[in-house]
Write the structure tokens for this entry.
Amino acid sequence: MTANSRSLTLSLLQDRYAILRFMPEATPPAWAMRGDFFSVTRSKEELSIVTKITNLPSSQSAHSQWYAFKAHGPFAFTDIGVLASLAAPLAKDGVGLFVISTFETDYLLVEVDQVQKAVQSLRAVGHTVLDSEFLAEK
């Protein structure tokens, strides 16, 4: 199946998230690992953390806020084109993203001011986006 012919279902998580960068030797703070979705990734170059904005202590600030789309999986490692089918329409429409992959699925984070455009872009190519009704209230 090609990336362009794939139709996926995604849910839009209602919380806003921060993406933070720390020095590679930093200890992940306990506040960052609260809630039902967060990510802590360490590499030789950095410690990256994705956490709910509401978890941030007053001493920590985020330069932007993000919403997360969760692709409904699970997806096998041999299931080719899942991420491409999501990233390609967003790139075509100028929507930047930050991706987190897990064993079973992918999460695409887009900045708050681009989330409406992202929903439209994904739906325009045949993807289903659930749980986005709350955006109309904002």
Remarks:
- The chain has a mean pLDDT of 92.
- Residues 82-92 form the longest helix (11 residues).
- The chain has two helices and eight strands.
- The chain has two domains: 1-16+65-138, 17-61.
